[in-house]
Design the sequence.
């Protein structure tokens, strides 16, 4: 959740229309509808769904939009909202007092702490002190590119003394969050958008939406399969990091065909500035305090969009052998890597769902 973003219109959502028929139920009463909003999580969110009427689609779309706005306000670290204690409130009260918050904030922090312990430190939500410095230098570089520079390492190292996630104290009984270190702050940019997308998708399923795809700035979550009488899977385009503007499938790296799952990518092409011709992107390794430098992009496919968002950062910030071993030991997780020289590597399960390897939307 940053005040600026390098927006790629078109993003990752490209639905492949497949011509050959498949044996499915009669979905002739369903029509495809889509709409877009731009006012949450500083990105473009596209919703596509098959419903029995435009009125039904609009009802779901409005619910999705309203819920994204609500979650955006909760997870916002930049702005205050009247009558709402959000992440900014927690940061503002660091070292002062616990803050009573809504359950969605408690759940997000607990989710993030759990996966920090189980998966690794690359997505430490307590890295705000370091990420704030990078944000400052990034904003200055965008405003005045000729003066772009890297933050001094000693400044980053000093800030890194204040990112101990164990000092993020969650009291579930009283629904409060307290940052014990007054110099620390939360930054959930590596997980909030995917987490919100997953939460909204589950709520919409419970509300009766059966066939849809939500793309929140490239965090893609599918519900069911396309009700077009042809496909069993949605086709989700994977961004080619060398082709920033996606206009058609020829500009994509590949297409993954998924059912009831999520596709999330992390890459050096999304939010960056340049210093002496070198791209300085936003994915910061907590071990080096510098942007990861192993790949152009990494894509993760798994059921939960919040987890996919979380894992895509971890996968991007580890050298290939370590990153591959990490993915291989996780059930239900597949990945694809675009190395610095353009070489593409993928897990066996990922290859099975890629268009380049013969997969299609009619596969069951």
Sequence:
């Amino acid at each position: 959740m940053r005040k600026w973003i390098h927006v790629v219109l078109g993003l990752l959502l490209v639905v492949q229309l497949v011509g050959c028929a498949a044996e499915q139920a009669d979905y002739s009463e369903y029509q495809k509808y889509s709409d877009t909003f731009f006012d949450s999580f500083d990105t473009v969110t596209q919703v596509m769904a098959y419903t029995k009427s435009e009125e039904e689609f609009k009802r779901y779309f409005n619910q999705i939009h309203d819920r994204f706005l609500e979650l955006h306000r909760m997870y916002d670290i930049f702005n205050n909202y009247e009558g709402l204690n959000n992440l900014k409130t927690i940061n503002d009260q660091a070292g002062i007092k616990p803050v009573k918050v809504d359950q969605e904030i408690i759940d997000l922090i607990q989710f993030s702490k759990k996966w920090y312990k189980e998966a690794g430190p690359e997505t430490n939500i307590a890295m705000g002190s370091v990420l704030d410095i990078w944000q400052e230098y990034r904003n200055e570089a965008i405003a005045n590119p000729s003066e772009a520079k890297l933050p001094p390492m000693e400044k980053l190292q000093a800030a890194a003394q204040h990112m101990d996630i164990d000092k993020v104290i969650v009291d579930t009984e009283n629904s409060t969050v307290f940052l014990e270190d007054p110099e620390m702050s939360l930054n959930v940019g590596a997980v909030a958008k995917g987490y919100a997308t997953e939460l909204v998708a589950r709520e919409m399923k419970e509300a009766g939406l059966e066939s849809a795809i939500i793309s929140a700035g490239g965090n893609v979550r599918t519900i069911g399969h396309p009700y077009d009488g042809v496909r069993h899977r949605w086709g989700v385009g994977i961004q080619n990091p060398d082709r920033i503007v996606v206009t058609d499938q020829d500009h994509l790296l590949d297409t993954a065909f998924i059912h009831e799952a999520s596709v999330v990518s992390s890459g050096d092409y999304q939010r960056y500035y340049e210093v002496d011709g070198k791209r300085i992107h936003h994915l910061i390794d907590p071990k080096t305090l510098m942007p990861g430098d192993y790949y152009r992009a990494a894509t993760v496919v798994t059921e939960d969009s919040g987890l996919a968002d979380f894992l895509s950062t971890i996968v991007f910030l580890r050298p290939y052998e370590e990153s591959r071993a990490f993915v291989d030991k996780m059930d239900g997780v597949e990945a694809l890597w675009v190395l610095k020289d353009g070489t593409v590597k993928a897990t066996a399960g990922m290859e099975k769902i890629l268009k380049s390897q013969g997969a299609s939307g009619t596969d069951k």
About this structure: Confidence is low (pLDDT under 50) at residues 1-24.
